[in-house]
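Sequence in, structure out. Go.
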Amino acid sequence: MRILITNDDGINAPGLKVLEAIAAEIAGPGGEVWTVAPAFEQSGVGHCISYVHPTMIAELGPRRFAAEGSPADCVLAGLYDVMKGRTPDLVLSGVNRGNNAAENVLYSGTIGGAMEAALQGLPAIALSQYYGPGNVTLGNSFEAAARHGAGVIRKLLDSGHWDETDYRIFYNVNFPPLPAAEVRGTRVVAQGYRRETRFGVEPHVAPNGRRFLWIKGGRQDVPTAPGTDAHANLQGYISVTPMRVDLTAHDRLEALRAALE
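Output:
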């Protein structure tokens, strides 16, 4: 199997090393793992592409490249330049340092990389490691993802739904904030919503007197509703969520037609 991997934490991120090991296990002895990751951290860029300026790319080693762009840029670079027509069988994005559950999905560059692969008609999976008191002090805080990642991916490849519709499905996987041995299993769940937390800003004044704003995330230990991603993670389960890029509110189409047409 030929696998393309990327992330949003950057080419030197520890989570990328975890994903490289997972991908090598999935690809097998005769397979290929290609890495195209951002040269610098790109957390929070979502599905951004560098449409108005060029992206420099550098080869760091065999099948290993860094691009000065977003995860979506990296997927495009991998497909149309680095791999030179050798289409990957699978695209993996992650393993992100921190969860990409609930509203985080909408901001995540990790999700953006998988999303771009899906828009390119390729099977794609985003993987993220939830952080919390149960794993932040471990020698390897990615232990749950490292131990269970390959197994989850194999199950998705064997039993997941891989359609070829216009907005094809991709998968969002979050590993709970626990040591690997304490992971309770896997739950297939919907994307949740944290009702008690929001992104915001925190103002600071620099030594030169200029005022700056830091974007500030909300609490991540707030559970979502039962049957959704962050709730499952905080209960000790790996969450798997099938996703599409289609943003249409299909449940409102008929009512809106009746009102406006």
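Check: The chain has a mean pLDDT of 97. The first strand starts at residue 2 and ends at 6.
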